[in-house]
Write a structure and sequence with these properties.
single chain; 894 residues; 3 domains; 56% helix; 5% strand
Length: 894
Amino acid sequence: MRRSQNGFYLSTALLVAANLLIPVAVYIFAKGFFPYKPLLPGLAQYEELPQDGSQPTPPFDRLVFMVVDALRSDFVYTDGTGFQYTRSLIKDGVAMPFTAHATSPTVTMPRLKAITTGSIPSFLDVILNLDEADTSSQLSAQDSWLAQMKAKKTGKLVLYGDDTWLKLFPDTFDRADGTSSFFVSDFTEVDNNVTRHIMPELRQDDWNTMVLHYLGLDHIGHKSGPRSVNMVPKQREMDGIVRSIYGAIVSQPHLQSTLLVLCGDHGMNDAGNHGASSAGETSPALVFMSPKLKSIAKPATVPAPFNEEFQYYSKVDQSDLAPTLGALLGFPVPKNNLGAFIRDFLPLWSNRHDQVHLLLSNAKQIFDIIATASGVSLMTDYASSACEVLPTVAEELACELQIISRSVNSKSSDDLEERLFMWLQRAQELMSSMASNYDMSKLIQGGATATLALTLAMASLIFVSDCRWTLLPFAAITILYGIMMFASSYVEEEHHFWYWSASAWLLYVTISRYDRANRRRHTPAITAVMVLVVMRLIRGWNQTGQKFAGEPDIVKLSMTSNPQLLWCLSITTYLTTAVKLGDGLEGLPRGFSVALVTVLIASALAFKVAFCNEDSPELVVGFVETVLGYLGEASLVSRAQAVFAILALSSVYPAYSLLTQPYGKSRLRGKFMKIKSRHIDMKTLHHLYTVLALTQSRVTNLPLFLLFQVLQSFLERLAPGLETAEISTTSLVLQLASFFAKGGTNAISSIDLSNAYNGISGYNVVAVGILTFVSNFAGPIWWASATNVLLLQRRLPAATNSAGATGGTAGTTSGSGEGRGRGRGVYHQHIALWTLFVAASLGFVMAACTALRTHLFIWTVFSPKYLYSMAWSLGQHLSVNVGLGGLLYWLGTR
């Protein structure tokens, strides 16, 4: 016995060490994988003048820069959309249309960095984009066209719209009114707050730059997708803004030399999201508008025929905006720019010397970055015939630029413009293909730390597992999952692995453990069919992944097209949860418990109906619309706060019961009745979390929790006959499968922010972060809680098992640390297995990112996967499975 105890303590020490090493590994690897690239400090200055001693005269002196968040190219250019006036300007030749390529990650902050500085942002900006309180990503010390316009001192800078601009450019704008980009339920107020400032500003002449950033169209996409009934009306609204601004430019004398630019920071996919690299996400519209452009605009087909790749008219990079605006408005190209001047605007300068000077200035500015990165120099005297034989592309570019510069000075070439455009293209290709500034030592250290955590987790299992063969399925799933991480297509379509794993595993435990659990109500075959049907419904609920995103699924085919069926299933989910809660609160006075559960479920359902009315009003029909009329005028914030407050109140009784174990009239004394009583309290807390999960989920996903409850009931019947490793395997496959079933993917675009502000009237990084995590991981958290119920279920004696078992081994105690009769051994093995999987998966993902760091999809597939691995490791594993789960299981078994 003493030896067994010593082994258990050693195993615990190894397990604690393994879990402490996981965040260390995550941090070390992230620091080496997501470094900030070195930047050239200061503002660019005009250095070399043309022979006539003056800079090329800019055609414009003011800029109205209008960003419509998520403005995909087809929203503007194709027929049937709301931008009719903008298309008429293109047809008249006073607007020049482009499709601006947005590189991944296609989220607002890094895209604005690319647009304003012309540089390539760090992928770490994806995380910073979610933290509105962050200041580490500021561009106040970095050159940009905003800084250059301010340095001209010809007028003030004003901003109205997304406050991300204020974070990026503090103390830059003289007048501003920012709005948060994360209140994604709001389609109107965030835009009305921008529009109300426009006409007063257009009447003033004290500014030279006006930035407008509209958010409503992006919010509609997140909520209902690009085909939402709200989309075309919002496009018409934005088109009306263009009409008002352009009308002022034409009619008001002080705006005659104003350039209006309409663009999207990114696009959206068929599901209405963004962040990844699909054609829709990387293809925002870009339109330059001014009467002065009529002389150079090329004929364009209006409206453009639909293109499934969303490529319309000329294609440019978003980074090309910075040098182009520099030439059009008369300031030097920002120092860290990697963009090339858009050649369509070159005819605005009739003097060939001006044209060559603009392109040569752009080339020399980009070469300064190449020189910093590679160490080459223009001071080296290259021979004219030796460029092709130089050892590196950087040296070839230095040689070619030197030759071009000589040609300019000697006036000996007639094709300088074309040669400069070709040089700029090669320079862009070089900089985009160069490997990131990875810190290889940290990548190796991070991987080694994850491997050490894996080794310690494996060692800890030696002391607590007495049934090694039950570990084989868990090990097989872990190894197969790790191998998948080295293939981009498998990472994108990972959900299939977990759907099939979950289905196969549940089929196995149904057949192999059915008799052991002594269930005689149905044959194993019938039960297996029922389980597989439920799993098929779960896996078909939301079409996820990358390849088939936006394709038909149960939500699209049955729920949104039949809202009354959706609400019947949703209300059934709430009522089922209410019944289970009523059973769990039986220790309270009957009248009080019924009233408490009724108020909780009614408040939660009222909030969901009111939220859906704001979010997706097309789903509020029939009897639900009638109910809406009785809900009053309370705000969504106060409704959500009421739900959270009643949830907290309802949690007091089961939590207190677990802490003190009082005995009411219905709670018998005795060891096993004590275990059963705690099991009831644990289930009550689990059902209370179900209400929270429903509150933090989209209405179309509510019936999923009804399916989860069906599976849980089935598993509770099997629990007495399952080994701990088998319950852990069940927990693993169902946590991962439920994440994807609710619409999650390994792409940033699937992050759901729709419920991030429930109950919050202002931005709070901690509260929003928690609500965002619960919203996106509601399914995995639910199954983590259900796992605690199943683990405690195994400790109930055969005669009193809540599932009705009359035999089996649930009440026995093995001689090893497994200890079915001792809760610490059961939970210890469960966490050891989860730690093993998390450490192994982290190690595999780190190895894949390191080995494939030069892969074409490193920033679009593997880097987002690493970010999700961080969330699973730090959020789901350490915070939920180990932290919260450990606390609850300890309360249930102490």
